[in-house]
């Protein structure tokens, strides 16, 4: 990992509490972390470790209850690149713009819009982006150029997840956040999806964060961050990233 | 936004059943609005145009006889603009080939030309030629009823003298848009006619040479109507004037006004009900759609869609439903308006009546429906888009269920598992359940109103023609006649009984209120003309004092025991003070009644009568009509059976249309509410229902859960609907209580049964649809799907 690369996210003391029915859940209990430009990070943790919450907060889907979180903290106002943003205090409007132009999401259950075809599911995002890929190109990137006009119900789980990835990368985001992207898939399909994510990171330099409970996936990362009980348990840098095809579980 | 719009179309298509049900309710509201407004506009427009182009007079005076020379003096009165003296005479006609007696009135025209006021619109032929005394223009409705054309001949009795008249033209007058005999309620075009002939000829026939007995006027701009009326009354009292009437008192104008008022009520009340219900339905349905699309919404937000863009998306979904409803409503409204136009054309004789939907009504109805949609959708959309996206992506917290008080009331074995599920589901969303109940109840209420109107009008006609007016025939004499004339009538062929009456025009005064009507003197225990008390029992006429129709007593703010001032408008024109001794309950018209000999005494006259009521043997009608033709003293003959028939026909025609519309829209509301409720319940419980079926429940057992909910809501709604219906019927009863007629407040078990049945049928229909859908439920897929 290149320690000199620009910091994309800088978090200190992130906490998040939820009211769930009659219970209060402490999802994050104080997270400190940094993500760097161009790296592929895998965040590992059991269910309830707070990894999804962290990803949601990084992606501007949710705001922390306490703590600070900056996006590109070192960027100055005047530069050509997107200015830095304090995600902990950003308004809804700023968060919306942040998501609209800088982040791509991949969800465990794909979350495709069932009334739209593959191409249209991608178009839903490219229509509001500044520098999008054509939907067809984005789908070709994930190997679905022959399934453009199929509805989600006509696609297999792996295909649906690849549509979701195409949708996420079509806007050419700086950061790609993936929440258990292989969680609902069998081994073979899961590997194909990881290949796509790896290739995008390698070829476009997009920062990719994958959260999973699957330890094996950590081997393909530049860095592994382990979460437990709402805190960063430890982190580890891989000297060598393994190719997804080599993974077995 | 292209892709999002495509999603919109597909969502709309998927929701077509529910969307249609809502659109139908909206359509009902728009339809009533368009129908009422269009009718209102075209009636008002046609009336105003005709009034303006044909110089409808503003004041009307009837008097006994005044010299034409008086015109110059009247012209000097302050505020008087145009003035037109004329001769007015009662006429009896015989149409060749038509057996029944025909009555009518003859009005004079300046020889050979149009009058200054109340121009005639000639549909065919021409005005009588100057100098001709045998030509007349006849009213178009009468001509149409008998197929008369210019050149046809009529036999007439004017002032006791037989004359032959030739029709020179067929005409319409702004004075007789609603053409009805003075004592009737409904037009009878076969038996009532208005004719116009040259002034000189009519004056000669009627003994009015150099004189007039009727006056029409217009006012100068800015003149005070009341002051001119007072001035006229002062001058004309000595010529036997019974007081100047404004347009407000003019029969034809008055009836149109009442009709317009009725349309105004329809234009506000009904659309308000329908649009409230549709706003509520939209709220429920949009809330549900958004609930099922929580994830999609969250994903779109995650991708950076703005709240406003998403609000627009769901707003458009609602707007599409609303627009569909609006378009259907406009189409139905225009269709119904043109149907109603046919009826109105027959009853109101306008030279031309345009039935076009006014643009502003289109715009207004669109605006109102969009506002209703906004009110219905705003909350659901805003709550959904306002949530942070991550929260929307988590599954909703498990619903909190608890045992309701209702459940505790019912013994467990009686309730069963299905019953428990039904009760808990309802208790979980008490507000939603309450809204559904109110929605269904509103439709039941509308059905009550519809059925009430039909029953009430029927009761009203029954009361008037079966209980109050029991005579077969009403004869009116040219002038007060000695009472012994009755003996002559008794010997006519077919006459079974005769009862005489005396009518004196008066103004009743109490404090600052006054009302122009007539005193009707009758036998102490009238046999053919009842004065009923509150319970519908006949009363005796008191030996002294006067009885008033309850409505008139309320208008004058006078109570039994109070003293009324009575200004007599004929003969010596005395002022009397009479005590109010009792009230009379009758649905049509208003009147003041007293004993015949008492009235004669008050008038300082011998036993005089103005007319007689006859009971007639139906076998001898033709002979009787022929015999009456030979009695020139009889100025008019009214046939009660024919009048009743006319009223019933009119009411049947208009009310049937109204009833069909009411039932149609009430069922559409019931269906819309129940259907949407059932579909939502179905979607929410698909997993639950599939689980039960997988566990071995039969379709019927599972259906019981859904249908039980529908049944419970419907049953709860029915009594509430009855209450709502009774409440609105009270309002209608009050709105439609005027001196022309008063719809009685009667409710029959039939009314309530009809309303309940209507709602039950709608619910059964929905139940059948739900049951069918249950058969198509894919159990495996529902259970495998990700929540």
TrEMBL record, chain A:
Q: What is this protein called?
A: ABC transporter ATP-binding protein
Q: Where is this region: Disordered?
A: 66-85
Q: Is Transport among this UniProt entry's keywords?
A: yes
Q: Which SMART domains match?
A: AAA
Q: Which family does it belong to?
A: Belongs to the ABC transporter superfamily.
> Does the entry feature the keyword ATP-binding, yes or no?
yes
List GO molecular-function terms, semicolon-separated.
ATP binding
Domain of life, source organism: Bacteria
**Pfam families per the record?**
ABC_tran (PF00005)
User: PANTHER family from the entry?
Assistant: ABC TRANSPORTER ATP-BINDING PROTEIN MG467-RELATED (PTHR42798:SF2), LIPOPROTEIN-RELEASING SYSTEM ATP-BINDING PROTEIN LOLD (PTHR42798)
From TrEMBL, chain B:
> What are the residue boundaries of the ABC3 transporter permease C-terminal domain, all occurrences included?
269-389, 661-777
Compartments annotated for it: namely:
Cell membrane
Enumerate the InterPro entries for this protein: ABC3_permease_C, Lipoprotein-release_system
Q: Kindly name one Pfam family recorded for this protein.
A: FtsX
Q: Which residues cross the membrane?
A: 20-40, 269-290, 311-337, 357-378, 433-455, 655-675, 710-732, 752-771
Keyword check for Transmembrane, yes or no.
Answer: yes
Q: Transmembrane helix: present as a keyword of the record?
A: yes
UniProt keyword annotations, A-Z: Cell membrane, Membrane, Transmembrane, Transmembrane helix
Q: How does it sit in the membrane?
A: Multi-pass membrane protein
- Broad class of the protein's primary localization: membrane
Q: Which family does it belong to?
A: Belongs to the ABC-4 integral membrane protein family. LolC/E subfamily.
Q: Under which name does UniProt file this protein?
A: ABC transporter permease
* Source organism per UniProt: Billgrantia aerodenitrificans
């Amino acid at each position: 990992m290149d320690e000199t690369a620009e910091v994309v996210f800088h978090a200190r003391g992130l906490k998040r509490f939820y009211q769930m029915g009659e219970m209060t859940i402490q999802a994050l209990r104080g997270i400190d972390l940094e993500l760097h430009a161009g790296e592929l990070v895998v965040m590992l943790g059991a269910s309830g470790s707070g990894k999804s919450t962290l990803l949601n907060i990084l992606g501007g889907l949710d705001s922390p209850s306490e703590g600070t979180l900056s996006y590109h903290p070192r960027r100055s106002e005047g530069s050509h690149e997107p200015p830095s943003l304090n995600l902990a205090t950003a308004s809804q409007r700023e968060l919306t713009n942040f998501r609209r132009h800088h982040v791509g999401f991949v969800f465990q259950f794909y979350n495709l819009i069932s009334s739209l075809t593959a191409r249209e599911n991608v178009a839903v995002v490219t229509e509001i982006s500044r520098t999008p890929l054509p939907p067809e190109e984005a789908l070709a990137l994930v190997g679905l150029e022959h399934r453009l006009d199929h509805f989600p119900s006509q696609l297999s789980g792996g295909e649906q997840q690849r549509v979701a990835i195409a949708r996420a990368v079509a806007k050419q985001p700086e950061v790609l956040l993936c929440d258990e992207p292989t969680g609902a898939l069998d081994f073979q399909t899961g590997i194909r999806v990881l290949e796509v994510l790896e290739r995008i990171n390698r070829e476009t330099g997009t920062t990719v964060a994958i959260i999973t409970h699957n330890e094996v996936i950590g081997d393909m990362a530049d860095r592994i961050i382990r979460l437990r009980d709402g805190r960063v348990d430890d982190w580890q840098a891989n000297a060598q990233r393994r190719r997804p095809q080599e993974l077995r579980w | 936004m292209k892709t999002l719009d495509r999603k919109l179309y597909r969502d709309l298509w998927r929701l077509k059943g529910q969307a249609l049900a809502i659109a139908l309710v909206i359509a009902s509201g728009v339809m009533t609005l368009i129908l009422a407004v269009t009718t209102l506009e075209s009636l008002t427009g046609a009336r105003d145009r005709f009034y303006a182009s044909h110089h409808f007079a503003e004041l009307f005076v009837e008097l006994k006889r005044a010299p034409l020379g008086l015109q110059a003096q009247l012209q000097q009165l302050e505020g008087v603009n145009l003035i037109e003296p004329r001769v007015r005479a009662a006429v009896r006609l015989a149409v060749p080939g038509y057996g029944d007696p025909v009555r009518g009135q003859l009005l004079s025209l300046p020889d050979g030309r149009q009058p200054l006021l109340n121009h005639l619109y000639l549909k065919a032929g021409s005005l009588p030629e100057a100098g001709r005394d045998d030509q007349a223009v006849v009213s178009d409705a009468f001509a149409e009823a008998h197929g008369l054309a210019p050149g046809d001949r009529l036999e007439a009795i004017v002032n006791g003298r037989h004359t032959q008249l030739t029709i020179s033209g067929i005409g319409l007058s702004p004075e007789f848009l609603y053409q009805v005999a003075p004592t009737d309620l409904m037009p009878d075009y076969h038996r009532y006619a208005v004719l116009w002939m040259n002034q000189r000829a009519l004056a000669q026939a009627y003994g009015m040479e150099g004189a007039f007995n009727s006056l029409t006027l217009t006012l100068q701009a800015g003149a005070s109507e009341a002051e001119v009326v007072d001035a006229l009354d002062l001058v004309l009292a000595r010529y036997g004037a019974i007081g100047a009437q404004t347009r407000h008192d003019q029969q034809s104008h008055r009836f149109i006004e009442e009709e317009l008022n009725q349309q105004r009520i329809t234009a506000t009340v009904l659309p308000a009900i329908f649009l409230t219900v549709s706003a509520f339905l939209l709220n429920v349905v949009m809330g549900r759609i958004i609930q099922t699309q929580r994830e999609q919404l969250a994903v779109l937000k995650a991708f950076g869609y703005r709240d406003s863009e998403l609000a627009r998306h769901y707003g458009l979904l609602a707007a599409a439903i609303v627009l569909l409803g609006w378009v259907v409503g406009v189409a139905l409204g225009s269709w119904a308006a043109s149907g109603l136009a046919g009826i109105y054309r027959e009853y109101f004789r306008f030279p031309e009546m345009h039935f076009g939907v006014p643009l502003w009504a289109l715009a207004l109805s669109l605006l109102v429906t969009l506002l209703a949609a906004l009110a219905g959708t705003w909350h659901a959309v805003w709550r959904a888009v306002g949530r942070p996206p991550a929260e929307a992506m988590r599954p909703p917290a498990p619903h909190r269920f608890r045992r309701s008080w209702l459940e505790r009331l019912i013994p467990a074995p009686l309730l069963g598992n299905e019953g428990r599920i039904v009760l808990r589901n309802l208790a979980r969303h008490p507000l939603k359940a309450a809204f559904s109940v109110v929605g269904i109840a509103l439709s039941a209420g509308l059905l009550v109103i519809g059925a009430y109107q039909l029953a009430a009008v029927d009761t009203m006609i029954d009361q008037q023609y079966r209980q109050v007016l029991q005579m077969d025939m009403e004869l009116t004499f040219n002038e007060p006649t000695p009472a012994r004339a009755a003996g002559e009538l008794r010997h006519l062929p077919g006459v079974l009984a005769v009862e005489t009456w005396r009518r004196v025009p008066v103004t009743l005064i109490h404090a600052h209120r006054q009302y122009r009507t007539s005193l009707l003197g009758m036998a102490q225990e009238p046999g053919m003309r009842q004065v009923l008390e509150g319970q519908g029992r006949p009363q005796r006429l008191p030996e002294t004092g006067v009885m008033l129709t309850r409505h008139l007593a309320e208008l004058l703010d006078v109570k039994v025991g109070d003293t009324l001032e009575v200004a007599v408008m004929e003969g010596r024109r005395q002022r009397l003070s009479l005590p109010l001794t009792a009230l009379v309950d009758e649905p049509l018209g208003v009147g003041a009644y007293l004993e015949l000999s008492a009235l004669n005494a008050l008038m300082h006259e011998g036993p005089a009568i103005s007319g007689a009521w006859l009971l007639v043997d139906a076998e001898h009608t033709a002979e009787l009509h022929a015999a009456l033709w030979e009695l020139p003293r009889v100025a008019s003959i009214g046939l009660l059976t024919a009048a009743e028939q006319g009223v019933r026909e009119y009411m049947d025609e208009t009310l049937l249309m109204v009833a069909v519309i009411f039932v149609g829209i009430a069922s559409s509301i019931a269906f819309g509410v129940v259907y949407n409720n059932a579909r939502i319940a179905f979607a929410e419980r698909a997993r639950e229902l599939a689980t039960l079926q997988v566990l071995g429940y039969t379709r019927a057992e599972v259906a019981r859960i859904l249908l039980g909910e529908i049944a419970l809501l419907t049953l709860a709604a029915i009594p509430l609907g009855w209450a709502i219906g009774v409440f609105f019927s009270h309002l209608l009863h009050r709105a439609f209580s005027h001196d022309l007629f008063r719809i009685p407040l009667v409710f029959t078990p039939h009314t309530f049964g009809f309303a309940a049945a209507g709602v039950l049928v709608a619910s059964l229909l929905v139940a059948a649809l739900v049951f069918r859908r249950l058969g198509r439920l894919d159990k495996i897929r529902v259970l495998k799907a990700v929540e």
